[in-house]
Amino acid sequence: MRDGERGAPPWGTWSVLDEGERFKVKRIEVLPGKRLSYQKHFNREEHWHVVKGRALVTIDGDMRTLEEGDCIAVPREAFHRIENKGDSTLILIEVQRGDYLGEDDIVRISDDYGRAG
């Protein structure tokens, strides 16, 4: 991925703000009522910082609500999901750290859009 590259999944959008050796920073927008797949990564950990809205976060089955300004760490190989239960777009900053940061390092076990398995 190059700096500034964007993705348009069915749940919202993401863009790469910065990347370097062993790190990548993304802006992620989740549309109201949408959620990402329940997934894990083998080669990276993630840190999420909510900058707008309210997020319902699940990490290895533990659910918690994050408000604006809250952040949470997602350990490597932990199953995780973020969901927007609000009526406006959820915006978060995601910092990835690890040996490999490619978009293909995803194992999905549940997905609202038929991408699991």
Structural commentary:
This protein has 117 residues and is mainly beta. The protein has a single domain (6-109), classed as Jelly Rolls, CATH 2.60.120.10. The protein is built from no helices and eleven strands. The chain has strands at 6-7, 12-20, 23-30, 38-40, 44-52, 55-59, 62-66, 71-74, 80-84, 90-98, 107-110. The strands form three sheets. A six-stranded antiparallel beta sheet has the order 1-2-3-10-5-8, with no helix packed on it. Strands 7-6-9 form a three-stranded antiparallel beta sheet, with no helix packed on it. Strand 6 (55-59) and strand 7 (62-66) form a beta hairpin. It starts with 5 loop residues before the first strand and ends in a 7-residue tail after the last strand. The mean pLDDT is 92.
State the CATH topology: Jelly Rolls
| Main beta sheet | 6 strands, antiparallel
User: How much of the polypeptide forms β-strand, as a percent range?
Assistant: over 45%
Q: Indicate the mean pLDDT.
A: 92
The CATH class designation is Mainly Beta
Percent helix = under 10%
Number of helical runs?
Answer: 0
CATH evolutionary superfamily = Jelly Rolls
The dominant shape is globular
Instruction: Name the CATH architecture.
Output: Sandwich
What's the number of extended β-strand segments? 11
Count of domain modules: 1
Radius of gyration: 13 Å
Q: Helix and strand string, N-terminal first?
A: EEEEEEEEEEE
